[in-house]
Amino acid sequence: MTTALTPLHTALHLAADGVPVLPLRRGKLPFGNCPACVQNACGGRPNMKTPGPCVCPRPCHGWAAATTDPHVLTSTPWATAWRHAATVAYHPGGAGVTVVDLDDPAAVQWARATLPMTRTVTTTRGEHWIYQGTMPSSNAVRPGVDIKCLMAYARWLTPGSGATAALPDAVRALAVKPTAPSAPRRLAVPLRGREGECRHRTPAYLDRGITMAEQRITEARSAIHATVYRTFLAVLSTHGRCGCLTDAHVARLFTAAQAKGESPRHCTDAWTNARTALGM
Question: 3-class SS at 76?
């Protein structure tokens, strides 16, 4: 007779394979913050951008508590949580994968007709399609479809079946909010420089610089806020004083940043701060 694994045993097996895990209570919810960390009194981590146990250390802060450290998973502060855990969750982004959560039969049918086949896990109401690669998480990208990756958790159910495919552009595109066609919106901060001699002998020089900046933002895997700011600073220091930088160029940078999860306000703030730092 096979004995079912407890949530802790399952978590330890997953952690040994490099999958960051955390306990879930009934209702598929993480355990609440401990008294020392309630309402982030402990300070948490800036924007909760990086996984890892809190300094308390307990299974606090939801997805960010996910860990692969067996000493943390079996520590006294976690013992009560495991005794009351209903199941195990994992941090997909920390494991290097993206979960397309298909919540009903209609969503599953859509995925089978639209997305490349990949490793599939059967859920209570639908399926999880798991791809190799990471991206920002996003809920309700279409009816019955959520994307769980960075700054999110997913329930561990089974290893699933099928080979894991590379994360396709079709999934990445789901998280990009479409913009209605309209006249270009003016940004809240001036874009053009007012002084300096133009060093752009050809338009290709500027376009290459913008393309490299987009790539730098897109390839960032952590510290997104800082990466966006430093990239904006670099673009402005090179191209911001001669008057060649246009709304279209900056819109490309903002689009790349928003695809990584930055809000329009964060983009504008980063742009303004970069200009201020350069005295522009």
Answer: helix
CA distances from 12 to 7, 50, 87, 167 (A): 9, 21, 13, 27
Distance CA 33, CA 39 (A): 8
* Pairwise CA distance, residues 55 & 66, whole Å: 13
Cα separation, 89 vs 210, whole angstroms: 39
Two structure tokens written together for 7:
């949530």
Listed residue (280, 223, 231) closest to 256, CA to CA: 231
Distances (CA, A) of 107 to 44, 99, 140, 148, 261: 36, 14, 11, 15, 24
How far apart are alpha carbons 158 and 14 in whole angstroms? Answer: 11
Which residue in this structure is represented by tokens 């896990």? Answer: 121
The three-class DSSP label of residue 131 is strand
Tokens of residue 276, six digits: 């201020």
Name which residue leads in pLDDT, 232 or 127: 127
For 194, list phi and psi in degrees, rounded to 5. Answer: -120, 5
What single-letter amino acid sits at 278?
L
158 or 49: which leads in pLDDT: 158
- Give the integer Cα–Cα distance in Å for 93 and 155: 13
Is the CB of residue 68 less than 8 Å from the CB of residue 18? yes
Question: CA nearest 231: which of 270, 198, 193, 268?
Answer: 270
Beta-strand ranges (E) seen in 56-96 are 87-90
List residues bridging with 166 in a β-sheet.
Answer: 132
Q: Which of 43-52, 123-132, 208-217 has the lowest mean pLDDT?
A: 43-52
Q: How far, in whole angstroms, is CA 272 from its chain's centroid?
A: 24
The pLDDT of residue 87:
94
Average pLDDT of the residues in 34-61: 67
- The span from the CA of 49 to the CA of 52, in Å, is 10
Distance between CA 223 and CA 221 in Å, rounded?
Answer: 7
